[in-house]
Amino acid sequence: MPKETTKATRRKAADKAEKAPKAKAKKDPKAPKRPLSAYMFFSQDWRERIKAENPDAGFGEIGKLLGAKWKELDESEKKPYVEQAARDKQRAEAEKTEYDGKKGDSAGSGGDDDDE
DNA sequence: CGTATGATTGTTTCT
DNA sequence: AGAAACAATCATACG
């Protein structure tokens, strides 16, 4: 069995599942955005199917159906999505690498900035 | 070392 | 343009 980094960690997540804190406001000026989640890839492929079988379903309906099916999928079914997520992760990794690297540098350049 | 958190990602539909 | 259900994530920061 793989190590679950102390399952206790995840447990907490379930505890918090009670509330749905909306992401808002950023912290870092260039926040190296995080990799997409398997759900994102899954939705990209399913979104069309959901609507295909639920042309009448609206936002809430589809969203719920989407998640419901997602959980119905087998590990192997999510695998492809998760793999994509893992792939994107590498991308995000590089992002942070740069963010972390330039962070200390000052060189100056100046340039950069936040906003453009 | 282990933990908790926070931030983020993409879809859909609506006004 | 943004909002919110739906789900995963998972990298980071901190003592």
TrEMBL record:
Gene Ontology molecular function terms on file: DNA binding
DNA-binding region(s), residue ranges: 32-100
Keyword Nucleus included in the entry's annotation: yes
GO cellular component annotations of the record: nucleus
Domain HMG box: 32-100
Alphabetized SUPFAM superfamilies for the sequence: HMG-box
Keywords: DNA-binding, Nucleus
Annotated region described as Disordered, given as residue ranges: 1-36, 75-116
Biased composition (Basic and acidic residues): 1-31, 75-105
UniProt keyword Nuclease, yes or no: no
Pfam families: HMG_box
Subunit structure: Weakly associates with the stable SPT16-POB3 heterodimer to form the FACT complex.
Family: Belongs to the NHP6 family.
Name of the protein in question: HMG box domain-containing protein
